[in-house]
Queue: 4 jobs
Job 1
Amino acid sequence: MIYNHGYLVLAGTLYLLFVRRHALQKLTINGSPLAIVLLVGASVALLFSQAADIQVFRLLLAPIIILLWGWSIWGRDFLKVAGGPILLLCFAAPIWDDFSPLLQHITVFFNNIFLQIADIEATINEFLITLEVGAFLVEGGCSGVRYLMVALFLGAFYGQLYYRSLRSKVLLIITAGLFSLLANWIRVFGIIAAGHYTNMQTSLVKDHELFGWVIFIIFTLVPVFLISSRLESSPQETTKDEISGTTSGRVGGKHTSVFWPIVASFLLIWPPLVPIALQAKTEKVAQSWHPTLVEADSDWRGPLKHANVWQPDFSDPDIDLSGVYVSNDLKQVQLQITGYRNQSQNKELIFYKNRLFDSADWQLISTEKREIGDAYRQSPNHVNETVIRNKVDRAQVIVWSWYDVGGFLTDSKFEAKVAGAFKKITGDSRGALWALAGRCEVSKSSECEQQRKAFTLFLESFLQ
């Protein structure tokens, strides 16, 4: 688990606040209008990220909102005493995975240098390092992001505990981060070298978790500990006033009424209360939503069930309707409706696990936006056109897809996410993928053009 260190981050934050408890006890109400304005903006952003179910933003906003809440009530003295410890919570936010690809490339780059120095012949193809004895894949877990997070946190924690100079704190954090990267490069090289010299017989090739942390201690914790004592000549003395609880002690400020803690506390708690207040309406709207496949007219037959040419790869949808329609001149169109009555975490329309097709079965040929006009009541004027090929029978399929979010139609994932947040705030959390699919005549020069015409005729017959 990459974020197991989150418990360590929480414990460190609570410990620092405990150490500074006397300073916190001496704070007096000194409301800040600027902080209140910023807290309003942050609470609104939290409400929307909560409605859109953007977990990263929600978790990043949490420590920021706590800081703004304290600043709104006790003024800048709160930031001086509690700002640093609370910001440590950012090291537990799930944003660090995004750095893995970059760190993987850097790890491979330096290991290439180490291999050349050690005169070990290797062929490198992106993240794959191939030796005569075997191959090593530098996966996301080998990027060093875990060691980087822990090192940065420990550097920041030590700086908050002992340093008062911002320069010293920043230097220690940067130093810890650089040594953690070095330790990971050495760790990966050690595994590769062990595999090379033992003809892949060493257990390190498959089980190197303990080895990694031993390297981290030797090449990160020990050097950082030695360097930390030299960044400030007398670190214990520099924080004597802070630990004993001395603050600026402004007395007789203009904003000392209970108005400030009341307003700030309301802004702190209202975002979680909105979904609770709207829960009954959201459930009612969800249960009353029953999308259905369209009924065939005189020019088409269908929907024919269990005759699908394609299906999306969605995670546990509430609605999964599919049927194939056949025109009098034997044109075939599949109509697909897949979605969720009440979007929530891991059950949402725009979700990284939800894909238009299963890449294990299909190969992407092309994707583009296609304008179809605004004459159709169940589709936007632009749709996503995707052409895919089956890996088994090589059949080529064209898909026109779009999103319906509480009645708002769009071809854009971003617009669907934003609209979903707005709709959810009003008590409507419905969301569905609509799509038309059909086989292309790849033997013809026009390829999918005939199927595009069939889609247009279908829209004119049923969705106009």
Job 2
Amino acid sequence: MDRYQKFASSGLGRQLVRRLGLPNPHPLRRDAALATPVLVGGASRLSFLKQLETGSAPHGALVFDASDISSVSDLRQLHDFFHPVITQLGPCGRVIVIGRSPDSVAQRALEGFVRSVGKELRRGGTANLVYVADGAEDGVESTLRFLLSGRSAYVSGQVITVSAASPTGTLEGKVALVTGASRGIGEAIATALGRDGAHVICLDVPAAGEDLSKVANAVGGSALQLDITGDPARLTSYLLERHGGVDVVVHNAGITRDKTLARMDSSLWDSVLEVNLACQERINTALLEGDVLRAGGRIVGVSSIAGIAGNVGQTNYATSKAGVIGMVNSLAPVLAARGATINAVAPGFIETKMTAAVPLMTREVGRRMNSLSQGGLPVDVAETVAWFASPGSGGVNGNVVRVCGQMLLGA
């Protein structure tokens, strides 16, 4: 429970926050509705932008298509559009900049602009950049709907690449596998995918069987008690025999065994690398070599901010989570050739039973050191996974999206 956020929203708390310049976490909107009205500027090369509800201030979202920016002088267009209206953005507002390719000087400059805007926004606002490759214009709707909705509440300062066109559709009738599904983030992911129509196979170790069954029953899915560090043939055989294959695989299972490197024995190192990385590699290989992942399939890894910025006492964990990012980078072209995708989420401070056990001061630093001045929820990670898993996200491949409220330090 975030008692500080509750206090900061009280009458006395609001006064102290203003006077002392303390962090001021605004309640986040997490529903599926798009932020409206939308003010659109720039090239407007995307037909989806013309479908958005427009209107007068306060604006729910500011969207600028910077695809035509090709020189440093063209970057003035950002100032000309945003300067008069940025203060007219409503609570939990959305800023989205659309680019074409980060290969040019001017287009790469968009990243610094968006990340800085994200740190200037208040009242739960977020800012993100979407690079849309030439020919991929019809694959961007899923991404823009996600970023404009409350489902992206804890995603800010991110750069997303849409590299191909994509069909629309839902997860209705699809089969999704979620590892580590008995509680926390895994449970939230299973719930989101089940809500979107998938039959969810909830997997966890036998020791978590009771909780696993409750989750599977709640989402109308199946429970599979299995240790993923074993032979992946057991898993692939199950998927083929029971379901004829799988459409979505979410590698959520993971463990921590924290010690500083000087105090970490080899067993602590080996166990974390095995569960968090090595077994995922083996499962992916088995899925692809056995044609278990169906056409249009989705693989989603769960990395961590620790894998990007590092963390004291987590050399093993950070190594494994950086490896997940490497797995995304190496497999993205392989999956693309099959008409499939692989992406990863990198959560920051998420309110779970594990983080609730963190010492108070460490926990408060984790909560406040981001642009939204608060911790995220398991549903924030789950909604990002559900966006990756959507049939409409076929053009989103090889991305690592941080679900961290835009951490201020280290990443």
Job 3
Amino acid sequence: MRSVPPVARAYVLLAVGAALVCAAPAVTSATSWPAVGLLACLYAGCEQVGRCRIIGRRAPQGMGTFFPVLLAGAFLLPPSAAALVAVPGALLTHVEQRPAGLRRIWRAARLALALWASARLFGALGGPEAVSAPHFPYALVPAAAAVLAFCAVLTVLDCGILATAERVSVRGAWPGLLLRSLGPVAVHGLAGLVMAVLWASPYGPAAALLVLLPMYISCWVFAQYQRERAAHQATIRALVQAVDIKDGYTRGHSERVGQASMMIARELGMDDERVEVLRFAGILHDVGKLGVPTRLLRKDGPLTPEEREIIQLHPEYGHEMVRGIGFLGEARSAILHHHERLDGSGYPYGLAGQQIPECARVVAVADAFDAMTSTRTYSRARPVPVALAELERCSGSQFDPVMVEALVQVLRREGWHPVVTADETAALPTPRAEGVPVPGAASR
């Protein structure tokens, strides 16, 4: 909405007019003003937490953090009064994109309309009586309906602004908008209902405000987790892109090995945390190729013994590159040992049997499977059954039988549907020598 089309401006003004009509009855009623003022100030203060010099960027961002305050207003106040709760906070919120004034007005109008509809439905279903009685369990149904109405109104309004300002198809936009908001708002709605029940109880508003502290802490923890996870994903994505740029033959290979490693780990019953680590290990198993001369990676002819020795250093290069990345955990040993063989003839250290870390044995099978089922400049892709038969033939000598059997079982049940596919190459130059003796069973 940086350059807002006239039709979008008209749409915003229409929403503002509708919000004013909905909130107008509250202006003539003085009975709700103390509660409206307290909730509005509380919401406005919550919206300003991100600007605090002490908390700063560590605070959860966005109005969704404090939906409990808004929904508590919908559960406690008449519809016209509830519509006013969000207005001061929305008008004072920080907006980075221009036009800031129009965006603040739009935000206030959409929240006011959503709160009015939510409070209206909550009252029609007998919610206020259940809250004030208090008959807390009986308030759950009207509260759930109010939350659904809140999300539905926001979705309709957002679809309208996307259609008028961004020319986005409403048909394709609304399902994602509704589903994305429904889960978080439902959780916040439950907290808002608890606030409303405590507010109407003999303990009063002071007790209701205590609900915000654990809610804020949980939002803060979740925000920190999301930031950390995003940083992890960005780190891995950057490393993989660097490998793909240097060795075009492996484009997509890393993601597919990560996918196959994850499938094996799940089949073996590993917990979600280890499954994620195995996915990281598969994705980054060839990161050490960044330390190998490009001319060797792209050489079409057979490798000399000296060149082969250089390429076989890539697991050690990769381990050195990621040894300081703490969140990778045991994935680092998989990067180092994924070319070891059960019979001890692998590299870089010639480990055998159970000396090879479990995660490395998983990645070795996933790596070999994708190498055989992908078209490269030195080999055509083999059908999945043929590749699995080759893995079973080499089971016990090159690969761990447990890992091979896990891959065979999961692929027979779910099939192989890689997220990323390697570029198909029509012409196949002279085959290059492989880093592992089994033809087509592993990549360099």
Job 4
Amino acid sequence: MLKRIPVQSLTLGMYLHEFCGSWMEHPFWRAQFLLKDPKDLDRIRATSIHEVWIDTDKGLDVPAGTPATTREQADAQIDTDFGQLDELPAFTAAPPAPARALAPTSMEAELQAAASICQASKQAMVDMFREARMGKAADAATARAIVEQISDSMTRNPSALISLARLKTADDYTYMHSVAVSGLMVALARQIGLDEEQTQIAGMAGLLHDLGKAFIPLSVLNKPGKLTDEEFALMRKHPARGWALLRRKGDLHEAVLDAVLHHHEKIDGSGYPDKLAGEQISLIAKMAAICDVYDAITSNRPYKNGWDPSESLRRMAEWTRDHFDAKLFQAFVKSIGIYPVGSLVRLASGRIGVVTQQSGKSLLMPCVKVFFSTKSDLRIPPEVIDLSAPGCSEKIVAREDPAKWHFPDLNELWSG
């Protein structure tokens, strides 16, 4: 049985199933192992992670009376919370319209445009990181032009670019992560009703938030195994390094600089570099914390495959009490969907499909491209079903783990 317990209750002999936090917050390259080394226990307790999942079938259980949450209890609470998102009031009464009026496009058409934007933006980020290694701050005009293209793409179709930017190789992760977080920041800014100037500031913060990683050796940045304590400490210096570089030029908004410095702060004060808590953290930095973690945990890395988008949101929901601003996280989920594009789901009919876009009517009823029947255990001709369409009797009954099914063309099915 899986149980979520406080880190303080963790003891030698327990089987660690999962950390309640992203893998950026701890130095372990794997999450599942029998806890036998006292040094590993000390290292876990030294991180900012407060809770872990243990598997009592593979190791010791907690003593009777110890606070613990079962997997079923945790899932039931998340289902309840997510199921209420459609009825929750908007963050603001009426989000302002984008400054540039652009005609909406289909997902298919915008994916093609977004591919070109992603490629050009990635190259621009490669250049920015190269210049940063030479001590040159990013050119604000270039960054603004990139954010404008990202913003325009999301005005035409809000899902295409942020979904496509999630598909990145280990080699281009650092650069494409910046592009993806910028897009997610724009989406969240619009969801909470920021005006166009503030939305552009949010997009800039997302684009530049990790520039300090230019000073981290690639051997550490892309290490496929466990980081040493020294390497982990070095990684945690990137916010301050990026902030110090960018502030020298003096042409960036203060909110952008603040987000660069504080995107790893947490609501409970256990983040870094300044251990800010609650309202001490700026709005843009709180937004960046959410967008940064989501893209990181849904992306493949040298040492770990990314999680399914909908599964990632559920895991983040478990961390919200300690990590994220709860209302902002709710707005983030509404901006990308409970089942974001690319999520693998099972329908009531037993068919399996991948989410291709949001319907705009209900967060629980996206458009799904079905392509596999669990009843016949065979592939079927792909068919797109709008679950929100009048008379549609289908509904999502479960999330599916892509690692279990090994569909080789999963990304192509939704992205083309």
